Amino acid sequence: MATLPNPSDLQPLLDALAFTPENVPLRRHVAALLRQAGRLSESEDHYRTGLRQAPNDPELQLGLAETYAALQKTSAALVVLEELLRAQPDHGRAHLLHARLLAGAGGPPDEARAAYRQALQLDSSLRDAALDEQLGLRPAAQPAGGGAPAEHSASVSDQGLDERALFAGLEKPKITFQDVGGMEAVKEEIRLKIIHPLQFPDLYKAYGKAAGGGLLLYGPPGCGKTHLARATAGEVKASFIHVGISDILDMWMGQSEKKLHDLFELARMQAPCVLFFDEVDALAANRHDLRQSAGRTLINQFLEELDGARHSNDGVLILAATNAPWHLDPAFRRPGRFDRIVLVTPPDEPARVAILEVMLRGKPVADNLNLPQLATQTAGLSGADLQAVVDTAVESCLRESMKTGKALPVQQSNLAAAAKQVRPSTKEWFATAKNYALYSNEGGNYDDILIYLGIKK
C-alpha cells in the first residue's frame, strides 16, 4: 500500500500560498497535491477558491471534478465537467474522467464509450486497461513485428519517464516578432539583451558580453508576455521551454531542486534555447516571507543555476514573466540574473491596430473594416481583452451565418458592438501596482508604472 505524504511535506507550499493568496498557479498546484495526499476536503476548498479567482481555468475545473469524483459526489463532478467541456471540447483528460464517471454511475454504456473514444482520439496515451475491460473494449492490436519502442512500454523506469516529460515541454516556435502586435519598445529591449548577442557574438565578445542572460517581463495579465517569449525563440530559431510552477514544485524534499536543475541542463543541451519561467514569483518568492527551509533551498538552487556557477549558460536565453514583481527575492535582480525588468503594458492605439490585424488574419472580414476607428474605442484593453472582442464579434457572425447557410464576413458593426461588451481587465492590477510604485519603489524599479499612469515624467 502506498504511503501517504507526510503533512509537513506540504507545509512549505501552504505557507507560500498564505503569503500570496492571489497566486492561482500555486493554489492549483497545492490543491492537486492535497488531492493526491487524500486530503480531499482541503483540496476541494482550494479548487473552489481558485475558481473564484479564475472562473474559466480548465485545470482548476478538472481538478475540482476529480476531487468531487473521489468524494463520491458524482453529480457535482458531472456538472463541472459539462461546463468544462462546453468551453474546452478538445480536453482529453476531461473526456476520460467523464467516461469513468458515466461508467461508474451505471448509465448508458454507449455514452461512456463515446466519451472514452473521444478522449483516446485526442490523446492515445490516455488508454486505461481497467476502463477498457469495464466498457467491453480492447486496445487495437499492434502491427506485426512492430511493437512499441522499449521507452514507451509499461515497464519503463521512472527516470525515463522524467526525461520524456522534460522533452515534452521542448518546442521550436514558428511565430516571430511579426506575429506580435505592437510592443516595439519591449521588442527592442529583448533584441539588445537576448537576440543581438546571438546574431553578433564577435561584437559582444569584444565588449566582454556573453550570449545569454536574463530578462524579467512584468505587467498586468493578458498583455502577451508568454506570446512574446515564444516569439523571441522563433525570432532566432531557438528551442523554447515553457516552465510552469507545476513543472518544478514537488512535495518531496529535494525533488523541486532536481527538476529545476534538469530543466537548465536540458536548455544547455539545446542551446540556443529560450528558457521561459511563467509566474516566476511562485518559484522566486522573497526569502524573508518563507518560514520553511524548503522554499529557501529552491531559491538558492535557482540563483545558482542563473549564475551558471557549475555549468555555463552560454546560449541559454532566460526570460521570466510575473504579474507581481514586488514578491520576488531582491537577489534575482542582481547583475547577471534578471538585472533588467521590462513593463509590458496594455497596447497603445497603433499597437491595438496591429494586434487586431493579427487576430483577424485568415478570417472572413469585410473590405471596409476601419481598425484605427475600432482601436480608439478599445483604450485600456489588454491583448486578451482584444481577443475577447474578436471572439465575440466572430460568434455574432457565426450565429447569422448559421441562419443563411454561408460564411458572412465580420463587419465593423460586429466589432464595435463587441467592443462595448468588453471591459478592461487591467484596472485592478494597476490600482495595486500604483501603490507599490508610489510607496515601495526603492531604486526606481517601478518608475515605468508611474510614467505609464502619467504620474511621473
What is the ordering of alpha helices and beta strands? HHHHHHHHHEHHEHEHEHEEHHHHHH
Helix content: 40-55%
- How would you characterize the largest beta sheet? 6 strands, mixed
Structural class designation: alpha/beta
Number of discrete helical segments: 20
Mean pLDDT: 83
CATH class of the largest domain: Alpha Beta
Q: Within the largest sheet, what's the order of strands?
A: 1-3-4-5-2-6
In CATH, what is the homologous superfamily of the largest domain?
P-loop containing nucleotide triphosphate hydrolases
Written description of the protein model:
By secondary structure, this protein is of the alpha/beta class. It folds into 3 domains: 7-137, Alpha Horseshoe (Serine Threonine Protein Phosphatase 5, Tetratricopeptide repeat), CATH 1.25.40; 168-343, 3-Layer(aba) Sandwich (Rossmann fold), CATH 3.40.50.300; 349-421, Helicase, Ruva Protein, domain 3. 53% of the residues lie in helices and 6% in strands. The chain contains 20 helices and 6 strands. A 6-stranded mixed beta sheet has the order 1-3-4-5-2-6, with helices on both faces. Helix 14 (293-307) links the parallel strand 4 and strand 5 (316-322). Helix 1 (7-19) runs antiparallel to helix 2 (24-36), helix 2 packs parallel to helix 4 and helix 5 runs antiparallel to helix 6 (92-104). The model is unreliable at 140-165 (pLDDT under 50).
Keywords:
single chain; 457 residues; Serine Threonine Protein Phosphatase 5, Tetratricopeptide repeat; Rossmann fold; Helicase, Ruva Protein, domain 3; six-stranded mixed β-sheet; 20 helices; 53% helix; 6% strand
